[in-house]
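User: Hello, can you help with two protein structures?

Assistant: Certainly.
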Amino acid sequence: MQEDFNIRTAVPADAELILSFIKKIAEYEHMSDQVTATAELLKKSIFEDRAAFVFIGEFRRAPVGFALCFENFSTFNGRAGIHLEDLFVDPAMRGKGFGKALFQAVAAEAERRGCERMEWACLNWNTPSIEFYRHMGATALDEWTTYRLSGEAIHQAVMR
């Protein structure tokens, strides 16, 4: 089936599609209530501000998955890296190698850019994804804890 699968770089007209994939991954992760993105905001952030880039996976010309990424930077190695924010394939299309192909497209982009690292986060309960990432050669960074400021907490940090 992989011969009918194509990966392309998203274009501004894909903003609604990207939002639909974000909503699907949020539903899968039991976080639908946290999605505040709109197609207009995604269009501005991704395509005008170039804050991220997106690959769309299509099977027989129908979109079935996406990978959304952005550059980060390592002070230790002095190079940009890629942060994979979301990788999602529609549940009915899983197990056909489409997720692997999207992951490899991101890795190829990291290689093309000369990145030393490719990083992402995965929910601890998401065993299928953890197994997939391990299969792809990833190692968990158990010695690091991710911290976050969100919304009003950002403002409060400024005021402290």
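That covers the first. Now for the second protein you mentioned:
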Amino acid sequence: MSFAETGWAKFAYDGATAAWAAHAREVAIPLTQNPQYFDDWLRCGGTWFVGVNLLPNDGQGQLPDGPVLAGPALDFLRGQNLLSPLDRAQISAIYPGYPQPSLAESAAAFRFRRDRDAAHVDGLLAIGPDKRRHLHEPHGFVLGLPLTDATASPMVVWEGSHLIMRAAFRERLDGVPPEHWAAEDLTDTYQAARKQCFKLCKRIKIKALPGEAYVIDRLTLHGVAPWEDGETAPPEGRIIAYFRPELDDIAAWLA
């Protein structure tokens, strides 16, 4: 099946991608271990370092004194006319025991993280005391680049879920000017569509190693699997760099 049908694609090992990942790993590890970032980014009982936009790369993904970010995943995005300037990458590090309960998360939210991989669509932020969902960050795609040799806590996607999500949001936002989309409360539509995805779509673990990469459609439901017994990762944890650049035109979010 094609990317348009599945909503995700994995790309085989590439030397240029591996060279970028090797350099990025040496930059990322000290950042994940720096206590000055713990208050903002260390969550889930110390088992997840979030690290949003923490990698100091430029708009092409290149790090200071590092190699160019290249490979088949980048070629694919370029061919899809999606490769706009990149944001600073997230450094997502998972540690043994993920997830653990924390005071920052309700019991229900923890159960959803543990039992449903905290499944979500990026950019729909929970706003206000009632955590209502609004489109505040219309990402163009998600590009995942593993930095450590690990099998633990892989990315999880619900295959084909982007089709369900796109149809639901198109119906909900029909007649609403794109410049007003961010003000719309999308919570009920989002939750109903997510429930349908759980029922109809296959849950797939994307296991990838440094030098490999994967791309996820911006509307694909995805999350992170719990760390299971017998899974492996180096002492610094399972680290993946994620690029999630925002679209210049919010109207393109449903294109």
